[in-house]
């Protein structure tokens, strides 16, 4: 999966916004600063970080209604 899609999917920003973060060198993958939005990440294997905070990919979100 492309790095910009990964970041947008987890809610870090729009594709355009996360491309800016990548180009500024604020994203690391497995400890390496990545400056290409086309960089391929393995969402379940790679460690993606933004400002020293680990980011975790979750494909689907499920919401449940509380009991009334």
Topology diagram in text:
Elements: H1 3-9, H2 15-23, E1 27-29, E2 32-33, E3 48-50, E4 53-55
Antiparallel strand pairs: 1-2, 1-3, 3-4
Helix pairs in contact: 1-2
Structural overview:
The protein is α+β, with helices and mostly antiparallel strands and 68 residues long. 24% of the residues lie in helices and 16% in strands. The protein has two helices and four strands; from the N terminus they run H-H-E-E-E-E. It has helices spanning 3-9, 15-23, and strands spanning 27-29, 32-33, 48-50, 53-55. It has a four-stranded antiparallel beta sheet, with no helix packed on it. Strand 1 (27-29) and strand 2 form a beta hairpin. Helix 1 (3-9) crosses helix 2 (15-23). The longest helix is centred in the first third of the chain and has 9 residues, at 15-23. The mean pLDDT is 92.
Helix content range: 10-25%
Strand content: 15-25%
In angstroms, what is the radius of gyration? 13 Å
Secondary-structure content class = alpha+beta
- The poorly predicted ranges are none
What's the total count of β strands?
Answer: 4
Give the overall average pLDDT. Answer: 92
* Main beta sheet strand tally, sense and closure: 4 strands, antiparallel
Overall form: elongated
Return the string of H and E elements: HHEEEE
How many helices? The count is 2
The termini sit apart by 41 Å
Strand order, largest beta sheet = 2-1-3-4
Summary tags:
68 residues, 2 helices, four-stranded antiparallel beta sheet
Concise overview:
By secondary structure, this protein is α+β, with helices and mostly antiparallel strands. 24% of the residues lie in helices and 16% in strands.
